Amino acid sequence: IATPLNLTTISKNPTTHPLLRNLIPRRTPTTTVRQEDSRAFGASLVGLDEAEQQARVLDLVRSQVAAVLGHNDADAIPPDIAFEQLGFDSLTAVELRNQLTRATGVQLSATLVFDHPTATALAGHLRDTLAPSGRKAARAKLDEVAALLSTLVVEADDHSLITEHIEDLLAQWRGTGDGPASPADDSDLNAASDEELFSLVESNRKA
After folding, report:
1. Nearest residue to 92 via CA among 75, 70, 73
2. How far is CA 18 from the centre of its chain?
3. Fewer CB within 10 Å, N- or C-terminus of the chain?
4. Residue 199: left (phi > 0), alpha (psi -120 to 50), or beta?
5. Residue 185 per-residue DSSP state
6. What is d(CA 55, CA 123) in angstroms, rounded to the nearest whole number?
7. In this predicted structure, what is the pLDDT of residue 5?
8. Which of residues 172 and 54 earns the better pLDDT score?
9. What CATH number labels 7-130?
């Protein structure tokens, strides 16, 4: 006996089995994001605490997921239900990646949905990318310095001098053994450019 299906009801139920969800005609997302809008989104996170940033990015993720799946409202997307359960496949995963790339201005992986399988997890990843904490930002800056040092080809004497300069920096960072640097020092290191870091190295050499 044939059973009529209410596709509207199916589309609004986030727990609908993917096989049934595949029966729903998908709309082509109409959301377009200008480059200046993507920059504005990242800037809008500045000055917010982590919880506020997470909430704002989660709203973005849910709205884009809703658009890709053909929902009219982001409220139809539960934040902690796996994308696979919501009906995502390889095609819609790439579609969402492209939408979020346009919305944030950040180049994202094609495996984004599979690496971060819920809206909450994906929002956390995007928040860390768009507005990293002081610790993560400082680590990224140090990674850049480490990568630069690994490419240097120097004589033995120069190698010793560079080592001494790095040790001088470590001594400053440790506060001559009195404990870790103050938050202000951490902020200064986080904000420093590569040129400023190496300028500090050079000033230590001349001191």
Report:
1. 70
2. 28
3. N
4. alpha
5. H
6. 8
7. 55
8. 54
9. 1.10.1200.10
| Spatial separation of the C-alpha atoms in residues 175 and 35, rounded to whole Å | 44
Please say if the pLDDT value at position 70 is more than 70: yes
64 burial class (0-12, 13-18, 19+ CB within 10 angstroms)?
buried
Mean of per-residue pLDDT scores for the chain: 75
Neighbours of 194 (CB within 10 A): 11
* Residue 147 to residue 145: CA distance in whole angstroms: 5
Amino acid at 59: D
Task: Show me where the domains of the chain are located.
Answer: 7-130, 134-206
Instruction: Please report, rounded to a whole number, the percentage of residues in the chain having pLDDT higher than 70.
Output: 61
Number of H helices, E strands in the chain: 12, 0
**E strands present in 3-143:** none
Q: Are 29 and 68 in contact (CB under 8 A)?
A: yes
* DSSP-based three-state secondary structure for 115: helix
